[in-house]
Give the backbone structure.
Amino acid sequence: MNNDYTILFETKIFQIARKDICAGLRGAIVRVEKRRDGSVAVRFRERYLSVEQCARRPEMPVVKAAKPKRPAGTVGRKEWCRNFDLKKAPKIWQTTEGSVTKVQESL
């Protein structure tokens, strides 16, 4: 059963009557019985619930959300990191090279 108290049975949707809604029913497992005369009975725990067939909900088309445009005058992603390039930066051994020699001279 769905959270809106509907049941899909043999491509038909049935809704439980408001008077029969009780605690623990939302999302619960119910037993659906198809009788010989073609009627449908729905049972939850030890009691039968009143149901009636409802129309299918119309399928809503999926609409993709548009990307929000950046306001004029804002800095783009590439602008803030323009001067930050790891390939052009000095290597770690080059930056520590001078400090190692200074330590050795002081000893």
Q: What stands out?
A: Residues 70 and 77 are 11 Å apart (CA to CA).
